[in-house]
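Below is how a single chain appears once it has passed through the pipeline. First comes the sequence as given, then the structure the pipeline wrote out for it. We keep one example in the README because the format questions we get most often are answered faster by looking than by reading.
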Amino acid sequence: MKNWIRFFVFTLAGWASVQAAAKPNIVLIMADDMGYECVTANGGESYSTPNLDRLAKGGMRFEHCYSQPICTPSRVQLMTGIYNQRNYIRFGILDPEATTIGHLAKRAGYATCIGGKWQLENGLKGPNQFGFDEYCLWQVTRRPSRYPNPGLEVNSTLRDYNSGEYGPDLVVDYLCDFMERKKDGPFFLYYPMILPHWPFEPTPDSADWDPKAKGVLKGLGRNKYFADMVAYTDKMVGRLVAKLEQLGLRENTLVLFTGDNGTAVGVKSILNGKVVIGAKGKPIDTGNHVPFIANWPGTIPAGKVNRDLVDFSDFLPTVCDTIGATVPAKLRIDGRSFLPQLRGKKGSPRQWTYCWYSRNGGMKGDEYARTQRYKLHRDGRFIDVPNDPLELKPLDTGKLGNSQRKTLAMLQKVLDEKEGTRTRFDLKKYKAKK
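Resulting structure:
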């Protein structure tokens, strides 16, 4: 009898292990202030991104992924799958009542971890309350240095470093350790990066790196070090991928890389021979056109370029679709899964994306809908984006061709349907506890 019991226990344990291994791990990476033009695989000519380029070569590169124009709105949309007009309160806060991608992954049996930049308040327990088992973050309850000799918050503990440590390295150390500890899976790792956000400072790979630097350096050298910081962003991505390979998890892990908004204002870069000037915070193309690369060896066809529209509401349903998590109907999310496209199928691509944007909340914001080429603002400006990226010369809607008129009508219908859907929030009720 005892032998039968042992056999049953071992069989059950083995079955559970197989089931866990069958569920793919997810590593979702989001750079901070790194627009589409910063990645060499996209045609960028100003920076070095060999690790991202390898991910693109071995996976799928999207040409039309759109975030919000600035960080908090993007984080809220990505984590909830809902457009900002329905759940955005104000800069630096996530609605304490929100259901997040972390919650849904955890309910599906995943170990969850977030590392990098938080900037969503709700106190030291906030990351846990939003579905993350573990965290290693900057800016949960304070804003010390994020780069040399930083101050981080790790699972409700404030940690200050004073021996030449570099914030991004410490975060990736933690994330690699998490994957090591959870290698029997499945796990969901969300890495909203600290890099390459201002202040632009030397990295440990810069010739003039100073391990004794203290505090925030106030943008030393202005844009001089931005290229170094993009290179270090790429390096951090490479470290995570290398760890997955070391653990033998690469073919069972979907890696997604994007950016939270456009490059910092005024940063000049070259994309396919043309100058691109960063426009973070502005509702123009270079304010929210971001890189997006998906890599999953053996599942995503290698070397593919996808022109489908993707926006930040789509990441939650795609991750949930991939891991078998149920998205409650009551959430009424706006996103749609692009998992079929990742598998090489046509899927159900978007015809349009929508943006409601107000950095500081309130009832009014910039609002527009767009296709890959055309963009319609709430005030009626109709933009041919590739030919007018700075949106200085709206098209004369009285002189449109037949195809343009159809696109205009479609986008107007989107805006009409969204009109009046902005949710009014009581800031006293929703104010986060620090």
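Residues 366-430 form one domain.

See the next section for the split statistics.
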